[in-house]
Amino acid sequence: MSDTCIFCKIASKQIPVEALYEDANFIAFRDMNPQAPIHILIIPKVHIETIMELDSETLMTGAFRAVQATAQLLNLTAEGFRTVVNCRENGGQTVYHLHFHLLGGRFMQWPPG
Ligand code: AMP
Questions:
Q1: Ligand 1: centre distance to CA 102 (Å)
Q2: Of 58, 60, 62, 77, which residue is most buried, by most CB within 10 angstroms?
Q3: Exposed, middle or buried, 66 (CB in 10 Å: 0-12/13-18/19+)?
């Protein structure tokens, strides 16, 4: 856990959020600046800066399980959705605690801007 990381504070419940999905290793909550009708962030409870520091196979598998479970809970599986992980500056990462964006509720353009 990092004392200065906003997502660590969410994961440890120091900052309360509505958890849309939670398991032993991940928690999902709404993005405060939504880019789609449904915009969820799925984060590991442990502090991992970027996807490049993700080296636990348990967490790799668990991340995709958490994405699947959250998409199912939000009834996104039939219409579809987009999952995005931004990495560092060129990827547009602003919070350096690994997170999976889950975007749904509208058609997603490709390529992204
Ligand atoms: P990224 O640019 O990939 O690092 O995405 C960070 C995301 O975190 C942005 O979409 C922000 O809107 C979102 N965000 C930052 N702080 C919070 C917060 N306290 N609660 C919910 N979403 C947040």
A1: 12
A2: 62
A3: buried
The torsion defined by the Cα of 90, 94, 61 and 81, in degrees rounded to 10, comes to: -80
**Shortest-distance atom of ligand 1 to CA 29:** 21
32 alpha carbon – ligand 1 mean position (Å): 6
Query: Over the stretch 10-31, which tens digit does the pLDDT of each residue have?
Result: 999 999 999 999 999 999 999 9
By DSSP bridging, strand 38-44 and strand 21-22 are unpaired
Report which protein residue has its CA nearest ligand 1's atom 12.
Answer: 33
Rounding to the nearest 10 degrees, give the CA dihedral for residues 62, 63, 67, 73: 40
Task: Give residue 19's identity as a one-letter amino acid code.
Answer: A
pTM: 0.97
